[in-house]
Design brief:
The complex is a heterodimer of chains A (249) and B (549). With 249 residues, chain A is of the alpha/beta class. Chain A has helices at 37-51, 68-78, 94-108, 127-135, 188-194, 235-244, and strands at residues 2-6, 9-11, 33-35, 57-64, 82-87, 112-116, 139-149, 152-159, 162-169, 172-176, 199-202. Chain A is 27% helix and 27% strand. A 9-stranded mixed beta sheet of chain A has the order 9-8-7-10-6-1-4-5-11, sandwiched between helices. A two-stranded antiparallel sheet of chain A has the order 2-3. The chains are: A alpha/beta (249), B alpha+beta (549).
């Protein structure tokens, strides 16, 4: 069984995003970019399934600028077998991503499409669900445990108030949550080897997908600055302060 | 408790420790001379440029020699220096030092202002195009010696070690890189450089290296106040109040951004001095504040800079390896520039290595590299200014600056005074807390000045939490008795990231090390009065993630 792992190149999670002065978006010039952490978990899970003998091949896919190659090389260094870059400098919305992924999935025929539950840049949480709908295949989202049994996959989902386990028939779409696994480090020799693994470059047009945006961004702004706290000496002082601010009567 | 580790090893021709301007220039030069050479660059930052912090006003001399076409694609070419000012600040005013009084070497004509991190990113791309293997996120943590005692390479740090030393499930052992020659290009106070300096006694015939702590911010300013290419340096206030010396810089760079920062010489005596707060205070000077008002801070960081100059340059070569860039210390202190000399030293080392390997040599001492530096324009330039820093350090800022100016003028005019000023180690200059007045720094206003932890959040700093502390205190009793008892805990003030705290636990003071905040500036390794703190590499990728710094 083949596993297809879509990965997204996003602003590094350690960084404080800087809103462009004109409010049109986030300034990414010279900003460190890395693989979306949820996608890293998807790559790790796919590789573990391969190591267990469940999967035979792990194919990483990214849709984005030429530099997204680096993200794919990271996936290859972790253990993916080959990669496909669908190169575009446009801002691609989840629907277009799902359409391109559907076309690739039809070509590759994977048993599982394993991807992060959402990307940390736009927090859309849509691609996996849209892909499942477009393909007419079952989906197991927010996975914290994945077990393949014959023609089925059991996915334990992190839902409000607990865990839900669903059984899906393959092929299926699985989106990964934070607690599924702890991704491995890419070792230096594996990074070297990854440079020699195959990486195909395509364009959205190769898949006949119209990537025109359906949404218009009106404005991007920073969250309000948190006010500094105030230390109080006693409960009475606290109550007095709260009254003063009109929080309690 | 640590399990038996088996490390893989890999033979290469040259391994370069550190992906800064010196290391990358060396790698590029090696490939230019012989493209068949296997060259590996190891970098502890999560990407090239992540740990690079500089002003910067850059003299393109070495870049012109290395990659003459650089102006076509390198982001540094965007902003040439157009105006150069040198101010002597008083509490609320300024004296402008006229250009004619400054020795010609202090002019910034033909120089560029921009981000050194971005220059390094650009250099790394060139290096990779030429076939250099660049590995960010892999700190070299150990020098490897062969049986004869020659440096035979380095080992990268193990990944996935827990705080208690045990191996986590994702443990990945380090890799040994065995090289014919190893270049140390770690920047100021490199931790492996410190080891090889001691092992081969490289500083036997030079003055001790001394340092300044540079703290920098990047601001988006009101476009109406932005004058690309305008470069300002300041001396005087506020350090003049505590008898300390150093100075500020304010560079108008691309995209309505101003890079500003403040360097405090680490030979200060008063243990109550806080370089971080001096910098915050400096931003409130009316001449500086007027540029920043209405703007927004976007980045913060700190790094030590070598200030020893020519007399502190150690022996550069030893069996199997050499020091390049700030690992050796080629900063021209009055010009506050070291990028061009760092790059040039990397190129000279590369030339010596390529010739040596072509001649069938390996693992021996590259004495010709040491000689090449001493007869290059690096030496010519640094000799002119060798007394400037120590004169200021000795005679204070006003008289010292004047004497430094005279000394530089005379040397420029080829009148060489027959003396070289000496240095004293920064750690030894600290005085007892009870002999110096405490300093009441103003509270940050949250607009121009900020508290330290808020600032650190603008450096993108992160370290894996579950790992051994990378700031090693050798003797905790000594730390308590001396660092706290005699000096009143200067670490709580000199650290620009607020890593160190003395807290009361029961009746006992306890030294708390918030190592995850460390921005890798190395001040603690230098300024601890007893040399009791040693900085070692944390897990790969840890530390700041500087953009455009």
């Amino acid at each position: 069984m083949k596993i297809l792992v879509p990965v997204k190149r996003v602003i590094d999670y350690n960084l404080k995003p800087r809103v462009k002065p004109d409010g049109s978006g986030i300034d990414l010039a010279n900003t460190k970019m890395s693989m979306n952490p949820f996608d890293e978990i998807a790559v790790e899970e796919a590789i573990r399934l391969k190591e267990k003998g469940v999967a035979t091949e792990v194919v990483a896919v990214s849709i984005g600028p030429a530099k997204a190659q680096e993200t794919l090389r990271t996936a290859l260094a972790m253990g993916a077998d080959r990669a496909v870059l669908v190169e575009t400098d446009e801002d691609i919305e989840p629907l277009a991503v799902a359409k391109i992924l559907k076309a690739i999935a039809e070509e590759e025929g994977p048993g599982i499409v394993m991807l992060g539950k959402q990307a940390i840049d736009d927090d859309s949480n849509q691609t996996g669900q849209m892909l499942a709908a477009l393909m007419g295949r079952p989906q197991g989202t927010f996975a914290s445990k994945v077990e393949v049994e014959g023609d089925n996959v059991s996915v334990t989902r992190e839902v409000d108030g607990g865990l839900e386990t669903v059984k899906l028939s393959l092929p299926a779409i699985v989106t990964t949550d934070l607690r599924l696994n702890e991704p491995r480090y890419a070792s230096l020799p594996n990074i070297m080897k990854a440079k020699k693994k195959p990486l195909d470059t395509k364009s959205p047009a190769d898949y006949g997908v119209d990537c025109a945006p359906r949404l218009t961004t009106l404005k991007v702004e920073e969250p309000p600055v948190r006010q500094a706290g105030e230390m109080v000496g006693s409960v009475d002082e606290l109550v007095a302060k709260l009254k003063e601010k009109g929080v309690v009567a | 408790m640590s399990e038996e580790i088996t490390r893989e090893s890999m033979p290469v021709d040259v391994v370069v420790v550190g992906g800064g301007p010196a290391g990358l220039s060396a790698a590029i030069r090696l490939k230019q001379l012989d493209e068949a050479l296997e060259v590996v660059v190891l970098e502890k930052g999560s990407e090239i440029g992540a740990h690079i912090l500089s002003g910067a006003v850059i003299d393109p001399r070495a870049l012109d020699e290395l990659l003459p076409e650089w102006r076509e694609t390198c982001p540094l070419a965007e902003v040439p220096v157009t105006e150069n000012h040198h101010w002597l600040l008083t509490r609320s005013g300024k004296w402008e030092i006229p250009h004619l009084a400054l020795p010609p070497l202090m002019s910034n004509k033909g120089n560029y202002t921009g981000s050194l991190g971005n220059l390094c990113r650009w250099l790394a791309e060139r290096a990779e195009e030429m076939g250099v293997q660049v590995f960010p996120g892999f700190p070299a943590s150990e020098v490897l010696y062969d049986e004869a005692g020659n440096v035979m390479g380095v080992a990268t740090q193990d990944m996935g070690v827990a705080a208690d030393g045990s191996h986590k499930p994702e443990f990945e052992p380090g890799l040994e890189l065995h090289a014919k020659y190893t270049l140390f290009a770690e920047g100021a106070r490199g931790h492996l450089t410190k080891q090889v300096k001691a092992r081969f006694d490289l500083e036997a015939e030079c003055q001790p290296q001394v340092y300044g702590l540079g703290i920098k911010e990047l601001w988006d300013v009101d476009p109406g106040k932005h004058e690309p290419g305008r470069v300002v340096h300041t001396q005087g206030w506020p350090l003049s109040e505590s008898g300390t010396w150093g100075g500020g810089f304010l560079y108008h760079q691309a995209d309505s951004q101003v890079a500003l920062g403040f360097v405090t010489a680490l030979d200060y005596a008063n243990p109550h001095v806080s370089p971080y707060h001096e910098f915050q205070r400096w931003k409130h000077h009316p001449e500086i504040a007027s540029v920043l008002e209405g703007g927004k801070r976007v980045a913060y960081g700190a790094r030590v800079i070598n200030e020893g100059g020519w007399q502190s340059v150690p022996k550069l070569a030893f069996p199997g390896g050499a020091l390049v860039g700030c690992s050796a210390g080629f900063v021209n202190v009055p010009r506050i520039k070291g990028t061009h000399t760092a790059m040039k030293s990397g190129m000279l080392a590369a030339e010596s290595i390529a010739a040596a390997i072509a001649g069938g040599r390996e693992l021996d001492e590259l004495a010709e590299y040491d000689a090449a530096v001493r007869s290059s324009w690096i030496a010519e330039e640094l000799q002119k200014v060798k007394n400037a820093q120590p004169l200021v350090a000795k005679f204070g800022e006003d008289v010292g600056t004047m004497l430094a100016g005279i000394d530089m003028w005379l040397r420029t005019l080829k009148i060489r005074l027959p003396f070289t000023m000496k240095h004293h180690k920064d750690a030894d200059s600290l005085g007892r807390a009870d002999l110096y007045p405490k300093i009441a720094y103003p509270k940050p206003d949250g607009v121009l000045s900020f508290d330290r932890l808020t600032s650190v959040s603008f450096s993108g700093t992160n370290h894996e939490e579950d790992q051994p502390c990378h700031l090693k205190v050798q003797n905790m009793d000594l730390q308590k008795a001396s660092e706290l008892g005699l000096y009143d805990g200067p670490s709580t003030r000199y650290c620009p990231a607020g890593v160190y705290e003395w807290i009361e636990e029961g009746d006992e003071p306890k030294f708390v090390i918030n190592a995850q905040n460390c921005v890798h500036c190395k001040t603690c390794d230098i300024k601890d009065p007893n040399g009791n703190i040693t900085w070692v590499t944390p897990e790969g990728g840890g530390g700041p993630n500087y953009p455009n710094m």
